[in-house]
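Bumping with the actual sequence this time:
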Amino acid sequence: MPLNPIAGEIFCIDKPLEMTSFMAVKRVRSLLCRRLGVKRLHVGHAGTLDPLATGVLLICTGRKTKLIEQLQGGVKEYTAWIRLGETTPSFDMETAVDAHYPWQHITRELVERVLREQFTGAIEQVPPAFSACKVDGKPAYKLARKGRDVEIRAKTLVIDEIEVLECGLPAEPLLTVRVQCSKGTYIRALARDIGVALGSGAHLYGLRRTRVGDIGVEQCEQLDALLDHLANEDYVPPEQALAELLEQERIANRQRAAELNARRNQ
């Protein structure tokens, strides 16, 4: 069956490391515009992934970009790799280590208790300065990269589940954690807060989003593989796609008019 990006498609990709979510969208849009012979096409993603994160990224086209907010609202699941005893300004590997803290007092039992008692359910979290949160109308990361002090208010979010998958303690200060959480959770900030709660410091040194709503990473394609498929797919011609959308709108308008008249005549 031909693809119809104008009416709307949803592509599930496993975002590669060091690529921005915007760049992934740009590459998909560029290929689709070329294949369709159009200059513009609505394409967007349902939830940003940092360049240093991999995993599920949903890319919507055409009319299905209207579903982005709904898709973003789905529960997210991540695998996070956390290094204790060190902090960075960005709370991940984007910036260099700026401070060292003791970690030898931390045990797996302490970690599990802290996660259970302080990081399960509704929690308050201050987003990172190196984030897209708006401060005075500007993304915080732009101000932070200029060396400006950035003050961001705490937000309430929900951690449904958090568990330790692997623990390098006492030999190494390394944790692998699975997190299931609500929209708006910054795993980098979570790593920071876990370090503080453990009487140390911490930063994120790896992150993989494994699920968005009902879509798991096992259902996703590598971006290059998807682009190869899209380059060889058949497509509904733009003129036909637009005509079909117009007819659907006409039918919907007639139905709404009939329902309105029926209510008036009751």
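The tokens above came from a reply further down the thread. The domain at 10-72+216-253 is CATH 3.30.70 (Alpha-Beta Plaits).
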